[in-house]
Design goal:
three-stranded mixed beta sheet; binds copper (II) ion; alpha/beta; Immunoglobulin-like; about 25% helix; five-stranded mixed beta sheet
Length: about 130
C-alpha cells in the first residue's frame, strides 16, 4: 500500500513538473510525506518460525503487515514496545498496525507460549 501510494505521488509530482514548473503546492505535498520517514514491513508467520532472521525498516512510523502462512495462532511484538501487538489466529489471517521506532536494533517475536523459544524471533534493524 505504502509503496503504491509513494509511486502514485511520484507520478503526480512528475506530471506537475512536466506540466508547469510554477505549481509549488503540488510539489510540497509529496515532499512532506517523504520527509516524515517510515516504511512498510511485511512479516510472515509460519509454524513455528519467521522465514527471515533479519528484517529492515526506516525510522519513523512503520506500517507492519503480519500474514499467517501457518495454521495456528501467532502474534507479533517488538521487544520493549508495549503498545504494539498484532495477532493472526489462523491460516490466511492478516493483521496490520503501525509502530513508531527510532533508529536501532530491535527484536521481533511471537508471544504465544513456546513460540519464541521455538524460533519465532528475529532481528529488526531500523535505520
Ligand atoms: Cu507463534
Amino acid at each position: 500500500m505504502q509503496v503504491r501510494r509513494t509511486m502514485a505521488l511520484a507520478g503526480v509530482l512528475a506530471l506537475a513538473l512536466t506540466a508547469c514548473g510554477g505549481d509549488d503546492d503540488d510539489a510540497a505535498t509529496p515532499a512532506s510525506d517523504g520527509g516524515s520517514g517510515g516504511s512498510e514491513l511485511t512479516v510472515i508467520a509460519e509454524d513455528i518460525a519467521f522465514p527471515e532472521d533479519t528484517y529492515q525498516a526506516d525510522a519513523g512510523t512503520i506500517d507492519v503487515v503480519y500474514e499467517n502462512e501457518g495454521v495456528i495462532e501467532h502474534t507479533l511484538l517488538v521487544e520493549g514496545v508495549d503498545d504494539f501487538e498484532l495477532t493472526v489466529d489462523a491460516n490466511g489471517d492478516v493483521d496490520e498496525g503501525s509502530v513508531d521506532l527510532d533508529a536501532g536494533t530491535y527484536t521481533l517475536y511471537c508471544d504465544v507460549p513456546g513460540h519464541q523459544e521455538g524460533g519465532m524471533v528475529a532481528t529488526l534493524e531500523v535505520g
